Amino acid sequence: MRAMRKTTAVAASAAVLSLLLAGCGTGTAGGAEPSLRTHEKVAVYTWWAAGVEKRGLDKLVEVFQEQHPGIEFVNDGLMGGGGSSTSKEHLQSRLETQDPPDVFVAHAGAELQDYIKDKHIQDVSALYEEFGLTEAFPQDLIDRLSTEDGKIYSIPSNIHRANLLWVNPLVLEQNGIDPSGEYDGLDAFIADLEKLKNAGIDAPLSVGTTWPQVHLLETTLLADLGPEAYSGLWSGSTSWSDPRVTTALQHYEALMSYTNPDRDELEWDGASAMVIEGESAFNIMGDWALAAYDTEGKTYGEDYRVVPAPGTSGTFDFLADSFTMSTGILDEDSAKAWLQTVSSKKGQVEFNKIKGSIPARTDVDASQFTEYQKTAIASFGQDTIVSSVTHGAAVPIAQLDAITAAVTAFNSGATDVAAFQAALAASGG
């Protein structure tokens, strides 16, 4: 079963090239002509092409059609892009050739900086007042969405939590380990990984290819530095030469030694499957992984557990899928209508009930959501919030690219901890 989840570079490259060529022609992968920018249609670019993400988008479209029956939704995205650099590169090519979709999804936060600088997206601050979002969204979220001059360029459809440990309690019980999966810090966690390794479990901690490995680094830094110093790495108030960073990188090296050898060939959901199937005991991943467990019919709290990643209890590592409005569109009314649905109570409830994330709005009834989502809603309301690096909230794309290159070099054995630390220090320019 594991082999079916692996990808090959040749097949992936061919698929990407085919998609890009299709996207650069007269039509998009959604089957529609590009630039359908009229009041009767709204062209929306997402990377939600399959699985729970596509089902969530479909539900959001249903709500949109109820709320705005005179406007036709056009799926103007790159089907199969999966939120990867492929989707972003395809979108960037359209923006640069003045063929923007009316609205497009991006990760809220620093990822938007280049779009703002290049004037590809518009200030939507006025819509926050018009739609009542200054009251519906928590102030801390609004602060994170705002630029230094107080403008806001996107409206989030959801909130995801990144710092989660997914646990197979049966594997832990069989090996005499507390099945709760709760750890105050990384040393105790690593000690249990060693026990599992000695018991014959080759990869007690599963991980996927490049970005999941960056995700694991992010969570390790958060565990050892704490929320304030972790956030300081991205604002410049924490030095990369800080001894706590060195400790975190040493912990990261240890964690990687307990992961699966085929990690560079495995997508993130394949790493989740290793926990589901009992091949691994743990996986560190965001709450979008919930769909993998639900699809297999696993029961929350019994077949699997989800707890804050070791050393990060009391902190909510935040990211959000957020919709922007492009500049240069011929009629903004249809775009504003889509953004109204995205931000509406019904839109946020129906979308997030499927996607596994939680609404950005605080005025929703939490009882409608799953047990995990109830814990996430409570955590977002009371924990210290930090911004995810891997998922676009904390740093701009160029810095994330540099961090990713440093992680790739380190995990391939090309550098040691000291060189890794130096490369990360240089990532900010």
UniProtKB/TrEMBL annotation:
Q: Which Pfam families match?
A: SBP_bac_1
Could you say which residues form the signal peptide?
1-29
SUPFAM superfamilies listed in its UniProt record: Periplasmic binding protein-like II (SSF53850)
The source's domain of life comes to: Bacteria
Q: Cite the entry's keywords alphabetically.
A: Signal, Transport
InterPro entries to which the protein is assigned, alphabetical? Bact_solute-bd_prot1 (IPR050490), SBP (IPR006059)
UniProt-annotated location(s): Cell envelope
Q: What does this protein do?
A: Part of a binding-protein-dependent transport system for a sugar.
Which family does this protein fall into? Belongs to the bacterial solute-binding protein 1 family.
The protein depicted here goes by the name Probable sugar-binding periplasmic protein
